[in-house]
TrEMBL record:
It comes from Myiagra hebetior. It catalyses: 7-[(3S)-3-amino-3-carboxypropyl]wyosine(37) in tRNA(Phe) + S-adenosyl-L-methionine = 7-[(3S)-(3-amino-3-methoxycarbonyl)propyl]wyosine(37) in tRNA(Phe) + S-adenosyl-L-homocysteine; 7-[(3S)-(3-amino-3-methoxycarbonyl)propyl]wyosine(37) in tRNA(Phe) + S-adenosyl-L-methionine + CO2 = wybutosine(37) in tRNA(Phe) + S-adenosyl-L-homocysteine + 2 H(+). Keywords: Methyltransferase, S-adenosyl-L-methionine, Transferase, tRNA processing. The gene is Lcmt2. This is tRNA wybutosine-synthesizing protein 4. Probable S-adenosyl-L-methionine-dependent methyltransferase that acts as a component of the wybutosine biosynthesis pathway. Wybutosine is a hyper modified guanosine with a tricyclic base found at the 3'-position adjacent to the anticodon of eukaryotic phenylalanine tRNA. May methylate the carboxyl group of leucine residues to form alpha-leucine ester residues. Pathway: tRNA modification; wybutosine-tRNA(Phe) biosynthesis. It holds the Pfam family Kelch_KLHDC2_KLHL20_DRC7.
């Protein structure tokens, strides 16, 4: 548990060095310095921002009072006191910090050794008295185990804590490491002993969904299990926990809600452009698994720092589920190497033959960008892996992620776009040719070679997280490249018609309401046109709109498809059309109470039904984002290949094997 404090100080320090947070004291307290990944920077930014937002609101609301105090529980190597003092916000406030005795001693030694710190605090020489390791006029550092409540109370009294003045308690990922009976007792003690008090908590939530399971496993491996989660698994349970222990007001936001509602738009944009970033799924999942809570009692006026500055529709209510879809590991596919990957693309080359290309995954026990193509072939009802011979120079393929592959015949496929790193320019267009060996009904070997590039289509292809869909215009075949993002544009809303097979640009008139720019959406061919659903929009907010691009007089027309109930906004899903029904598979949404399963939309009536995926037969968490899926209409079955991602600092989770989702019951009943 003590190790987590040091690790989080290093991460905060790295975020400060990149400009996410303004804090010149972190580097003095963190000790070692390491550069963290952009995803970690965002995670620690939102944590620091939530705590600062509430602390400064408390100081603002109490600025006219003669005296106030802040008690930071499990403070670790946090720099809160030094920042507030430096900003001139502690005129009448004393800050008390409590942590394990050896952590408090280390911090006290650091403060005394660093002129920049000791000059701010001014040592009054009161330390060395029992558990008080450092004592300044407005700063006391105490070494006490928080779970020993009577010892804590005695030491605080000795250090001069005053029960009669407004007090802010801060517990930033602290209570969850304690036994619930002890953390509950601490919450109740604070309410009972302090007539005017506020309590600020930041910690984890939602232990049982796939991301939550990966998160729990990580902390268990660090020997610091998250104990609060079993009793208080969601924001509402945490709210009831405080209201039932003497606190009269309590509001809770998960971090997606906090980012959207409490951070001004210009600040959101500043953070989103600080460094190249392309891990939206893991960022939003991390944010849905942490909350900030503000409880208070006896405060006049009442303390409500989490009242949103903008009204955003809350997605906290459960999504009504119409039924379940069973998930099963495919027989004979378990243990086949090469399919543990994400950001890849899988496509049906012809009935019973699936090609998977690109992405990031696991090869020979190492995590890397995937160079090898993978082919699955179905024979006598069973899938098997087929040996693939690749005659493709590495630099032409470029180890790409988030590209598209369109099969124009059973011997020819077109790869459009993709990226290597998020700062790369995108990777253009490639033809893949499959010589006739692929025509055998049960190929044992498939060879892939590169056909010359088509420079005419390059501009359309310098993007990733886009869609490429086949459509028909005046009896001719086209590919419709839409949306995505590029190194320069975080979200694109443009489109190109590529006439096949020569890939020439064709200008075709398009009328109607233009869909808002998006990436990580889904696109399907339907009745000669294209169905676009969901996606991530300009402000990194999921979209719930569905558009149909259909042939119309001298060109095409955008039409909005209305659904009832409205489609829950989502992105990073896959989609298929079957007999007039749009099937959306997985994805990421902001509804923290559940994860997206299968959504079925009747394109005639607009009826929209959500189904939960029953994963009781899987022994591992099924992450349905950054995956690919192939629909097998005869079997009424979906084959989900790959999926997962870097789960914040909790490690990389890759779905270990393909999963079959049986849709027969829901496609009949619909």
């Amino acid at each position: 548990v003590q190790g987590t404090g040091g690790s989080s100080a290093v991460s905060k320090c790295s975020a400060a060095a990149r400009g996410y947070i303004q804090d010149r004291f972190l580097r003095l307290l963190a000790g070692r310095r390491r550069r963290r990944a952009p995803l970690i920077h965002r995670g620690y930014y939102i944590r620091a921002r939530a705590v600062d937002h509430c602390v400064q609101d408390f100081l603002l609301k109490t600025q006219s009072l003669p005296r106030t105090q802040i008690l930071s529980l499990g403070a670790g190597f946090d720099s809160l006191y030094f920042r507030l003092k430096d900003m001139g916000l502690l005129h009448h406030t004393v800050v008390y910090e409590v942590d394990f005795p050896n952590v408090a001693c280390q911090k006290a030694t650091l403060i005394k050794r660093m002129k920049e710190l000791s000059a701010l605090v001014g040592d009054t020489g009161g330390e060395g008295l029992g558990a008080i390791t450092f004592s300044g006029e407005d700063y006391k550092l105490l070494g006490v185990d928080l779970s020993e409540l009577s010892e804590l109370e005695r030491t605080l009294e000795e250090a001069g804590l005053n029960n009669e003045i407004p007090t802010l308690f801060i517990a930033e990922v602290v209570l969850t490491y304690m036994e619930n009976t002890r953390s509950d007792a601490l919450i109740q003690w604070a309410a009972e002993h302090f007539p005017q008090a506020c309590f600020l908590v930041y910690e984890q939530v939602h232990p049982e969904d796939p991301f939550g399971r990966v998160m729990q496993k990580h902390f268990s491996q660090l020997s610091c299990a998250l104990r609060s989660l079993a009793l208080y698994p969601d924001c509402e349970a945490q709210r009831r926990r405080f209201l039932g222990r003497g606190w009269t007001e309590c509001s809770v936001l998960d971090m997606n809600e906090f980012f959207t509602c409490c951070i001004p738009e210009d600040e959101q944009q500043r953070v989103q452009t600080l460094e190249p970033f392309d891990e939206y799924e893991e960022w939003h999942l991390k944010c849905s698994h942490y909350f900030v809570l503000a409880a208070s009692k006896g405060m006049e006026p009442s303390w409500t720092p989490l009242l949103p500055s903008v009204t955003v529709p809350r997605h906290s209510g459960p999504v009504g589920m119409a039924g379940t879809v069973p998930a099963a590991v495919c027989a004979r596919l378990s243990g086949i190497p090469g399919l543990r990957r994400y950001g890849h693309h899988s496509v049906l080359l012809k009935p019973g033959v699936i090609l998977t290309t690109g992405g990031f995954g696991e090869e020979n026990g190492q995590h890397c960008r995937m160079r090898n193509f993978h082919v699955l072939s179905k024979h006598a009802g069973c899938w098997k892996a087929v040996c693939v011979t690749q005659n493709i120079p590495d630099k032409r393929w470029g180890e790409r992620l988030y590209h598209t592959v369109s099969c124009l015949s059973d011997t020819l496929a077109l790869v459009v776009g993709g990226r290597t790193s998020p700062s790369s320019t995108g990777l253009g267009v490639l033809w893949l040719k499959f010589p006739k060996t692929c025509n055998a009904s049960d190929p044992d070997e498939v060879s892939v070679e590169l056909v010359s590039l088509q420079p005419a289509a390059e501009a359309a292809a310098l993007r990733w997280r886009h869609s490429t869909t086949e459509l028909t215009f005046k009896g001719e075949q086209y590919l419709f490249v839409y949306g995505g993002r590029s190194a320069l544009e975080p979200v694109l809303g443009d489109w190109y018609f590529l006439h096949t097979p020569e890939l020439s640009y064709t200008a075709i008139a398009v009328e109607g309401p233009v869909p808002e720019s998006r990436h990580s959406h889904s696109a399907c061919s339907w009745e000669g046109g294209v169905l676009i659903a969901g996606g991530l929009g300009a402000a990194e907010q999921p979209l719930g709109s569905i558009f149909l691009l259909r042939e119309f007089e001298h060109g095409f027309q955008w039409q909005t498809i209305e659904t009832h109930p409205p489609l829950v906004p989502r992105y990073s899903h896959t989609a298929h059309v079957h007999e007039g029904k749009l099937l959306l598979v997985g994805g990421v949404w902001f509804h923290a109470s559940s994860v997206p399963g299968i959504t079925v939309i009747d394109l005639m009536t607009g009826l929209c039904l959500d189904y939960v995926i029953n994963v009781e037969h899987l022994e591992w968490p099924l992450m349905l984002h950054n995956h690919s899926s192939v629909f097998l209409p005869n079997e009424k079955e979906l084959l989900v290949i790959g999926g997962g991602g870097n789960c914040f600092s909790f490690g990389t989770h890759l779905n270990p094997e393909p999963v079959a989702l049986s849709l027969s019951s829901i496609l009949i009943s619909h």
